[in-house]
From TrEMBL:
Protein name: Transmembrane 9 superfamily member
Native source species: Raphanus sativus
Keyword Ligase set for record: no
GO cellular component: endosome membrane; Golgi membrane
GO aspect biological process, one term: protein localization to membrane
Bilayer topology annotation: Multi-pass membrane protein
InterPro entries reported in the protein's UniProt record: EMP70
Membrane-spanning intervals of the chain: 227-249, 286-316, 322-341, 362-385, 391-415, 447-463, 483-507, 519-538, 550-578
Keyword Mitochondrion included in the entry's annotation: no
C-alpha cells in the first residue's frame, strides 16, 4: 500500500509540478516561445478572461499550451499567437493582421478600455503586460458634461534584452501612442494591428533575470513601511514579553512560594490552586478539539515549508502557478502530520476513539474549502472567467484528495495511535462533579478576553498584513521572505504569550473551562485580519460581484487557516503552562 501511494505521489508530482523551465540558449533566427495569456480589468485581479475573448488577431488554429495544475488554478490560459519574435531579429512595423471590427466588437473594446483592461503575455517564460487602450476625458462641454474619447492601441513595441550566452534576459512591451485608433463611435472600422521588435545586448546573467519583478518591494517607500512595521512589532513583543516575565512570572512565583510556606490565608486567596481537581477535566467535544489541533499543526508545518521553499529561491514572482502547485503538494504530504497530531492528542487526553478525531481532521478545513470553492467556481463559470476550473481539473483534485490526502491522513492517525503521546496522568485526582464557576469580573469574561487576545497580536503585524493584502489583491509584489518570516514568528510569540496570560487570568477567577477559550483567544487575531480585509476592500478600487465573491471567499479561507494555526499555538502554550504550574504545586 505504501509503495502504491509513493508511486501515485511521484506521478502526480511530476505532472502538477512541471512548471516553467529556466532560460534557453538560442541561435540567431531561432523561434522563441511566445504565448498570449489573459486579459482583465486592472483593479480586479480575480476577474480575468482568455486573451481571444477580445476580438484581437487569432491564428487560423489556436493551439492551447499544455498547462500544469498550478497554472490552471492560477487562471492561466496560454495560447499561441501571430506574434513572431525570432531571436536577435529586429522588426519594424510588422503587420500582425488587418481586421474589420464590427460595431459589437468596437463596443466590446470600448467597454474593456473604460475598465482599464490589461493583457498578459509570456515570452521565453518571461511575463509582459500592456494596456488594451486608453480613455481621454474632457469636461469642457456644455454644462461641464463629460466627453470621453476611447482609443485602441494597434501597435506594440517589444524591447528585448539578451546576454552574451544567447539567453533572453528581459522583455518589455510598450504601446505606441502614435498608433491609436479612435473607437468612440459605435460603427464598423478597419484596424491594422502591427508590432516592432528591437534587440539589445546586456551584461546581466540569466540567474538574475527574475529579480526585476521583485524590485517593487524594494522601493524606498516600501522599505520605510517595512522598517516601521519592524519597530512596531518589536515594541509590542517587548511590552508583552516584559509583562509576562517581570510582572506575571514574579507574581506567579510569589503564589507558589506562599503555597510552600503553608500560609492557609494566602492559599485561600489564590483561585487557580482551588481548581486543580477540575482544570484537567476532559473538555467537551474532545474529538473536535484534537481535530482542531491536528489541522492547525498541519497548516503550521505547511507555512514553514513554504518559507523554506522561498528562502531557497524555488518560489519567485510570476513563476506560473508554482506557489499553488507547492501548496497542493505540501498540503498532501502534511496530511500525515494532521492525522498523527489529532490521534496523538486524543490518545493523550482520552485514550480511546482516536478514529473519530482523525475523521474530523479530514473535514474540518476541507469541507468549508470545497463549499466556498464550488460557489466561486459557479460564479466564475457564469462570468466566463479563466478562474473557472475545467471539469478535468476538478476530477484531478478529487483524485488527489481521495488517493493521497485521505490515505496519508489515516497513515498519520495510525502512527499517532501507536507512537504518539501516552495517556496523560493529572497531578491530582479529578472530582466526579465539576466545581461551580463563580460570577466573573468583566475582564475575565470570554468576549473581552477573546477581543484582547486577538487585538494584541494583530496590532503588531497590521502593517505587514496590509502589504500582504496589497500583494495578493493588487500589484505590489511582496517578495521579502525574511520580513514575512519575522512577522510570522512575532505573531506566534505573541499568540503564545497572550494565550498564557489570559489563561492565567481565567484560572485565577476559579474558571476551569479554559480548553476551548484558549483556542478562541489565540485564533481571534484571524478575525481581526478578516475584518481588516473587509476594510481593505472598501478602500480599494475593486468592483463587481465576481471580484467581491472571490475576495471574500479566499480571504475567509486564508484567515480560517490562520485561525486554526494561532488557536493551536495558544492552546499548546496554555497547556504546557498549566501542566507546569500544577506540577510545581504538587512538588511544593
Amino acid at each position: 500500500m505504501a509503495q502504491f501511494l509513493l508511486q501515485v505521489l511521484l506521478a502526480l508530482t511530476f505532472w502538477i509540478g512541471s512548471g516553467s523551465s529556466g532560460p534557453t540558449r538560442y541561435k540567431a533566427g531561432d523561434h522563441v516561445p511566445f504565448f498570449v495569456n489573459k486579459v482583465g480589468p486592472l483593479h480586479n485581479p480575480s476577474e480575468t478572461y482568455q486573451y481571444y475573448d477580445l476580438p484581437f488577431c487569432p491564428p487560423d488554429s489556436v493551439i492551447e499550451k499544455q498547462e500544469t495544475l498550478g497554472e490552471v488554478l492560477n487562471g492561466d490560459r496560454l495560447m499561441s499567437s501571430l506574434y513572431d519574435l525570432k531571436f536577435k531579429e529586429d522588426k519594424t512595423n510588422a503587420v500582425l493582421c488587418h481586421k474589420r471590427l464590427t460595431s459589437s466588437e468596437v463596443a466590446r473594446f470600448r467597454e474593456t478600455i473604460a475598465q482599464d483592461f490589461y493583457f498578459q503575455m509570456y515570452y521565453d517564460d518571461l511575463p509582459l503586460w500592456g494596456f488594451v487602450g486608453k480613455v481621454e476625458r474632457d469636461y469642457s462641454g456644455h454644462g461641464g458634461e463629460e466627453n470621453a474619447k476611447y482609443y485602441l492601441f494597434s501597435h506594440l513595441n517589444f524591447n528585448v534584452l539578451y546576454n552574451a550566452a544567447d539567453e533572453v534576459i528581459a522583455i518589455q512591451s510598450l504601446s505606441d501612442p502614435s498608433y491609436m485608433v479612435d473607437i468612440s463611435d459605435n460603427a464598423e472600422i478597419d484596424v491594422r494591428f502591427t508590432y516592432s521588435v528591437s534587440w539589445n545586448l546586456t551584461s546581466e546573467r540569466s540567474e538574475t533575470r527574475m529579480d526585476k519583478y521583485s524590485q517593487a518591494s524594494l522601493h524606498p517607500i516600501s522599505k520605510k513601511i517595512h522598517y516601521f512595521s519592524f519597530l512596531n512589532s518589536i515594541s509590542v513583543v517587548v511590552l508583552v514579553v516584559g509583562l509576562l516575565s517581570l510582572l506575571f512570572m514574579r507574581h506567579l512565583k510569589n503564589e507558589l512560594r506562599s503555597s510552600s510556606n503553608g500560609d492557609e490565608e494566602e492559599k485561600r486567596e489564590v483561585g487557580w490552586k482551588l481548581i486543580q481537581s477540575d482544570v484537567f477535566r476532559c473538555p467537551p467535544n474532545v474529538s473536535l478539539l484534537c481535530a482542531f489541533l491536528g489541522t492547525g499543526a498541519q497548516f503550521l508545518i505547511l507555512i514553514v515549508a513554504l518559507f523554506a521553499l522561498a528562502f531557497t529561491g524555488f518560489l519567485y514572482p510570476y513563476n506560473r502557478g508554482l506557489l499553488l502547485t507547492s501548496l497542493v503538494i505540501v498540503y498532501t504530504l502534511t496530511s500525515v502530520v494532521a492525522g498523527y497530531t489529532s490521534a496523538s492528542f486524543h490518545n493523550h487526553f482520552e485514550g480511546t476513539k482516536q478514529k473519530r478525531s482523525v475523521r474530523l481532521t479530514g473535514i474540518l478545513y476541507t469541507v468549508p474549502f470545497l463549499i466556498i470553492v464550488s460557489i466561486l467556481n459557479t460564479v466564475a463559470i457564469t462570468y466566463g472567467a479563466t478562474a473557472a476550473l475545467p471539469f478535468g481539473t476538478v476530477v484531478v483534485i478529487i483524485l488527489i484528495y481521495t488517493l493521497l490526502n485521505i490515505p496519508f491522513l489515516m497513515f498519520g492517525g495510525v502512527l499517532g495511535n501507536r507512537f504518539g503521546l501516552s495517556e496523560f496522568q493529572p497531578p491530582s485526582a479529578i472530582k466526579r462533579n465539576p466545581r461551580e464557576i463563580p460570577t466573573q469580573n468583566w475582564y475575565r469574561r470570554k468576549l473581552y478576553q477573546m477581543f484582547l487576545g486577538g487585538l494584541v497580536p494583530f496590532s503588531a503585524v497590521a502593517l505587514e498584513w496590509h502589504q500582504l493584502y496589497a500583494s495578493l489583491w493588487g500589484f505590489k509584489i511582496h517578495t521579502s521572505p525574511g520580513i514575512m518570516l519575522f512577522t510570522f514568528i512575532v505573531l506566534i510569540l505573541l499568540s503564545a504569550s497572550v494565550g498564557i496570560i489570559l489563561t492565567y487570568i481565567q484560572l485565577s477567577g476559579e474558571d476551569h473551562e479554559w480548553w476551548w477559550r484558549s483556542i478562541w483567544c489565540g485564533g481571534f487575531a484571524a478575525i481581526f485580519m478578516f475584518g481588516y480585509g473587509v476594510l481593505f476592500y472598501l478602500r480599494s478600487d475593486m468592483t463587481g460581484f465576481l471580484q467581491l465573491s472571490f475576495y471574500l471567499g479566499y480571504t475567509a479561507l486564508l484567515c480560517y487557516a490562520l485561525f486554526l494555526v494561532l488557536g493551536t499555538i495558544s492552546f499548546l502554550a496554555s497547556w504546557m503552562f498549566i501542566r507546569h504550574i500544577y506540577r510545581s504545586v504538587k512538588l511544593e
